[in-house]
Amino acid sequence: MDASRDEPLNDPNEDEGSPLIANLRKAIGARLRGHRIHRNMTGVTLSSAAGISGAMLSKIESAERIPSLPVLAALAAALGVEVGDLFGSSAGLIEPVVVRAGQPQGTQKPHEDDLLHIEQLGIMELPDVQIRLLRMRAAKGCKTMKPVQFDGFWIDHVVKGELVMCIGEREYHLRAGDTMTYRGEVPHYGRFPAGATEMLVVQGWVNTNAQRKIKLDGALLSPGQR
């Protein structure tokens, strides 16, 4: 690894009064992350290919640091894009992405007993919001999901089985064919009274630095767990 590539272009405190530099940091971070996700690359894979540390890549993507030109060139080469492609809004990355049956973009097994499986079927990252399509399968014997709270929203559609969503102090009983939309700021979790349940879920959240660092203890495919 070339240690010099881990050096940022500027001190992160130097541009606090410069909206132009701050916006550039955000644009590069969003664009870089968008290209990486579009190519189904993990942070480890990209940082290794570019010759920088994973910590530095994380800081660049979360707009905490702005990369030097050598680092930017190395990242572009690793992604197979031009340096200029890493500037501007990630909205320019809207290209068709097809995920074939049996080939989900990522799979997470949050519970140690492997009774709840979550598959990431699709993702779209825009400058201010990230949206994912997930498929959740609760096997027979699965009781609950882990409690979650985050700045975003859910749209849950029950394909088969039953789901009891506990949001704050209220419970909502959903059956096959039911759909529920709710915000994620209030602590919430799901129970599966009938055992085997399958859901299609749309998850979205605001792309703030704090949100990217949230660890959901395996209950979701969080941004840093690809």
Question: Can you put this structure into words, describing what you see?
Answer:
The chain is α+β, with helices and mostly antiparallel strands and 226 residues long. The protein has two domains: 3-92, lambda repressor-like DNA-binding domains (434 Repressor (Amino-terminal Domain), Orthogonal Bundle); 106-225, Jelly Rolls. Helix content is 23%, strand content 28%. It has five helices and nine strands, in the order ααααβββββββββα. It has helices spanning 19-38, 43-50, 54-61, 69-79, 209-212; strands at 106-108, 116-125, 129-138, 152-160, 162-167, 170-175, 179-183, 188-191, 197-206. The protein has a six-stranded antiparallel beta sheet. Strand 5 and strand 6 (170-175) form a beta hairpin. Helix 2 (43-50) packs across helix 3 (54-61).
Ordered list of secondary-structure elements with their pairings:
Elements: H1 19-38, H2 43-50, H3 54-61, H4 69-79, E1 106-108, E2 116-125, E3 129-138, E4 152-160, E5 162-167, E6 170-175, E7 179-183, E8 188-191, E9 197-206, H5 209-212
Antiparallel strand pairs: 1-2, 2-3, 3-9, 4-7, 4-9, 5-6, 5-8
